[in-house]
Design a protein that fits this description.
Length: about 110
């Protein structure tokens, strides 16, 4: 990362030899943006593995809660179907196939 920054600074200095035309301006702008990106990466604190796991688990939990709520709302419209059957039909519908539950219910399951 330090070598990259040194190289970019050297390239920026080398551009001073050329006349200030549009191409040189564009190259200078690109080099400056790359330098900013390197500074942002450097200043960004690293997240530990346990924090990454905690974030991933929270995201996974939120998705499962949303899916569970969705399936429970569909079951209110179809009380004769079990949760397992509704979840299997949800998977089939996600694959783009037809199910016994109408599309109107899948789009708005609230009774």
């Amino acid at each position: 990362m330090i070598n990259d920054k040194k190289k970019l600074l050297e390239q920026l200095e080398a551009l001073k030899l050329f006349p200030n035309n549009n191409l040189v301006k564009q190259l200078r702008k690109q080099i400056k943006t790359k330098l900013k990106q390197l500074d942002i990466k450097k200043s960004k604190p690293e997240i530990s593995i346990s924090e990454k796991h905690a974030i991933a688990n929270a995201n996974r939990s939120a998705k499962v809660k949303r899916t569970w709520n969705y399936v429970k709302q569909i079951q209110k419209n179809f009380p004769n179907l079990t949760i397992k059957e509704i979840r299997s039909q949800l998977k089939v519908r996600a694959q783009g196939q037809k199910t016994s539950i109408p599309d109107a219910i899948w789009q708005n399951p609230s009774p």
